[in-house]
């Protein structure tokens, strides 16, 4: 199932630039084929398109679409972070494929069932985002009116809210993390199937005990391999998620600023507010799945402690003690926050929301400061964006296009 669904996410990552077009899946593994002229041509075309659109929006359009400039910086930052750690992601993907091959060794003794989210669910998720993206663009086209033939309207698609790279980073993270979590669940299930109730008989090990020792060692080695894959994901996607969370938080602060300063103009326009819950939902989804994976990784500790090892053979006792030590060794290397430092990912959202709330309360309680900062900011923003010579209704009509 992982290999069947993998192509969908590899292609999505290639479109936005998280993975090089030269990376292809052949013989069941992902590798970079630099000799493929066609793949190299697609990579150059994508780079050329993104560079041309970036140049056009920065030097020709100016600040007419101010959030597009922010999204451009975000895109290229995430792009560079993804390319730097691309080799780690390739090792991670190939590691899962090879892990599945080793896991099915247990089919000779127990039925192996690795659950995963269906391809249909992921296809529906991609289709839903595409429909939502098209709806947002149609809404902006209707706001622009006579400017529908402006090339800038089309060139900003790649850097306009809803941001494509945000969605791809979010859904690929959920896909890879969920596959890791389900494999930890399967190892936990296999451990519970082992018959530890056997009593050692005098005269040496029985054939059943030898099989148990072999299976315990196999599960221990597979758990160590999964823990290493979790570390590889932290190295490969950690920098990408660091940039993703940083810019999502900054985007939320910018939106809060615009909603506060121009709230009089947004009385009847609720469209920009829909991106608030979207940002929160995306971040919470990654936080929840990450916490679930780490919880499933640690769950086997409780199973190890439930086994009475006093009547077991020395070899089984040694394997269980080695297993406990192995888990404690891998504990500092598990996926934490962004792959750079140990920080509980669940702390991110409360801190971000607290800063946003403090900013909003500060602005509400200081609505008329001594130097009238609000009017000064509005005046400067109107000068840069061209609102200064426009009327109230024109501001109300076009404000959504500036803050998306």
TrEMBL record:
The keyword Transmembrane helix applies. It is found in: Cell membrane. The chain crosses the membrane at residues 40-58, 121-144, 164-182, 194-216, 236-261, 273-294. InterPro entries: 7TM_chemorcpt. GO terms for cellular component: plasma membrane. Keywords: Cell membrane, Membrane, Receptor, Transducer, Transmembrane, Transmembrane helix. It comes from the Eukaryota. One of its GO terms (biological process) is sensory perception of taste. It is a multi-pass membrane protein. The keyword Hydrolase does not apply. Belongs to the insect chemoreceptor superfamily. Gustatory receptor (GR) family. Gustatory receptor which mediates acceptance or avoidance behavior, depending on its substrates. This is Gustatory receptor. It comes from Aphis craccivora (Cowpea aphid).
């Amino acid at each position: 199932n992982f290999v069947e669904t993998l192509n969908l996410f590899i292609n999505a990552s290639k479109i936005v630039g998280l993975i090089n077009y030269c990376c292809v899946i052949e013989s069941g593994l992902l590798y970079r084929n630099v000799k493929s002229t066609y793949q190299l041509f697609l990579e150059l075309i994508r780079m050329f398109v993104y560079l041309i659109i970036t140049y056009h929006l920065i030097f020709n359009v100016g600040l007419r679409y101010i959030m597009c400039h922010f999204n451009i910086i975000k895109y290229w930052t995430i792009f560079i972070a993804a390319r730097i750690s691309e080799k780690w992601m390739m090792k991670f993907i190939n590691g899962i494929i090879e892990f599945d091959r080793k896991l099915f060794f247990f089919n000779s003794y127990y039925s192996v069932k690795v659950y995963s989210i269906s391809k249909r669910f992921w296809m529906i998720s991609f289709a839903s985002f595409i429909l939502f993206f098209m709806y947002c663009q149609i809404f902006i086209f209707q706001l622009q009116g006579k400017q529908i033939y402006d090339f800038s309207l089309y060139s900003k698609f790649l850097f306009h809210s809803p941001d494509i790279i945000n969605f791809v980073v979010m859904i690929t993270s959920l896909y890879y993390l969920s596959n890791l979590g389900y494999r930890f669940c399967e190892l936990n299930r296999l451990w519970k199937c082992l018959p530890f109730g056997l009593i050692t008989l005098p005269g040496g090990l029985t054939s059943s005990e030898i099989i148990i020792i072999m299976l315990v060692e196999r599960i221990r080695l597979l758990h160590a391999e999964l823990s290493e894959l979790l570390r590889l994901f932290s190295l490969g996607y950690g920098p990408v998620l660091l940039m993703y969370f940083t810019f999502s938080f900054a985007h939320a602060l910018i939106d809060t600023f615009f909603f506060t300063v121009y709230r009089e103009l947004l009385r009847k326009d609720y469209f920009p507010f829909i991106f608030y819950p979207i940002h929160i939902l995306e971040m919470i989804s990654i936080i929840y799945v990450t916490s679930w994976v780490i919880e499933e990784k640690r769950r086997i500790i409780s199973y190890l402690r439930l086994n009475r090892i006093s009547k077991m053979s020395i070899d089984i006792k040694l394997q269980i003690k080695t297993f406990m030590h192995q888990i404690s060794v891998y504990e500092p290397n598990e996926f934490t926050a962004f792959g750079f430092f140990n920080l509980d990912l669940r702390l991110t959202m409360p801190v971000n929301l607290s800063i946003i709330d403090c900013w909003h309360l500060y602005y509400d309680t200081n609505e008329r400061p001594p130097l009238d900062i609000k009017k000064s900011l509005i005046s400067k923003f109107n000068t840069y964006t061209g609102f200064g010579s426009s009327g109230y209704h024109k501001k109300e009509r076009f404000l959504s296009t500036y803050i998306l």
